[in-house]
Design a protein that fits this description.
This is 3-deoxy-D-arabinoheptulosonate-7-phosphate synthase /chorismate mutase. The chain is an alpha/beta fold. It has 13 helices and ten strands. Bound molecules: phosphoenolpyruvate (PEP) and manganese (II) ion.
Length: 368
């Protein structure tokens, strides 16, 4: 005996449900049109779209008239969804895809650091000491970069240190040292800025403004970087989701600066054998969701020298446009991150291995 014969009225009941679905759909659409019209009136009158008093009133009346069998909580929940969908409709501009999203711009953004393109298919390398410590220290690293064909020199002048008693960086003097070495060896310089008020001054020295993990949600800093005329190297916060990371980038781009590079630098987990946990899946997700170039910081994500090569290869294989790493002439005496920076011979070896693996080519600019 078939199911239909056992329940002769099932089909009929289903037909009735289908009818009601259709009616609900028509009514919901009518309701949405009315909500949209109300939105227009509110806009014309300069009134806030969201009216919690009105919403409370509607919910109270619905619950009061609830004939069952749904309980009051369910009715509230269902209608809250309808109210929310209507509000979203009134605010549809905010629902548009983000400016940093691939939905808004399907083609890759190529960031121009001066005449050097980043994100054009070639793999870029940003390297240099954690902190700028002296002219000689930066010169030695700059020379090594030059010899390896790497054209983006990094160095921290304003250091956002966890302890206030640790080396805080040389400040403007550090930027001056970096610029001098950059000019001497024909390199572009990248340095972190931590204070929105310093951005304008920093632009006189640096080619790229770095915003560090600890400042990824310093919204005033993001806005100031959005008004800057230099590209921005934005690092993911140590406990930021990918979505929060993209919203941070949106702050910069929506203020008028489209030249943003994203850098995955590891997130905080319970794992102790690496300093952070490199979220490798963030790389293809960021590439898929956004048109901005994506870097991986192989130094801060791992905090160890012995796995930098496979991690760099993994990052580039996952689709990263470049990698960042810390290089110091004598890491054991470095004023910050002494345990994780590699020295110049190690850097040379690293570059050689990357070349051998086909990830970078020998004639490289930003390695390409
Ligand atoms: C840095 O790159 O200099 C740095 C401090 O890294 P992060 O902001 O990712 O901790
Ligand atoms: Mn560092």
């Amino acid at each position: 005996m078939s199911q239909e014969q056992k329940h002769p009225d099932l089909e009929q009941l289903r037909n009735q449900i289908d009818d009601i679905n259709q009616q609900l759909l028509q009514l919901l659409s009518q309701r949405a049109e009315l909500a949209r019209a109300i939105g227009e009136v509110k806009k014309a009158q300069g009134i806030n779209r969201f009216d919690p008093v009105r919403e409370r009133d509607m919910l109270d009346r619905l619950v009061q008239d609830n004939p069952g069998p749904f309980d009051d909580g369910t009715i509230r929940h269902l209608f809250k969804q309808i109210f929310k969908a209507s509000l979203d409709l009134q605010q549809k501009n905010h629902k548009k895809a983000l400016l940093v999203s691939r939905k808004r711009r399907p083609e890759d953004t190529v960031v121009h650091v001066g005449e050097i393109p980043v994100g054009n298919g070639a793999k870029s390398i940003v390297a240099g000491p954690c902190s700028v410590e002296s002219e000689e220290q930066v010169r030695q690293v700059a020379q090594a970069l030059k010899e390896q064909g790497v054209s983006l020199l990094r160095g921290g002048a304003f250091k956002p240190r966890t302890s206030p008693y640790d080396f805080q960086g040389l400040g403007i003097e550090g930027l001056r040292i970096l610029r001098k070495a950059g000019d001497e060896f024909g390199l572009k310089v990248v340095s972190e800025i931590v204070n929105p008020a310093d951005i304008e001054l920093a632009e006189q020295y640096v080619d790229v403004i770095q915003i560090g993990a600890r400042n990824m949600q310093n919204f005033e800093l993001l806005k100031a970087a959005g008004a800057a005329s230099k590209p921005v190297f934005l690092k993911r916060g140590m406990s930021a989701t990918v979505e929060e990371f993209l919203f941070a980038a949106e702050y910069i781009v929506s203020r008028g600066n489209s030249q943003v590079m994203l850098c995955e630098r590891g997130i905080r987990t319970y794992e102790k054998w690496t300093r952070n946990t490199l979220d490798i899946s963030a790389v293809p997700i960021l590439k898929q969701e956004s048109h901005l170039p994506v870097f991986v910081d192989i130094t801060h994500s791992t905090g160890r020298r012995d796995i930098q090569l496979p991690v760099a290869r993994a990052a580039l294989a996952a689709g990263a446009d470049g990698i960042m790493l810390e290089v110091h002439p004598d890491p054991s005496v470095a004023l910050s991150d002494a345990n994780q920076q590699i020295d110049i011979p190690q850097f040379n070896k690293f570059m050689e291995e990357m070349r051998r693996a086909g990830f970078v080519t020998s004639s490289t600019a930003t390695v390409g």
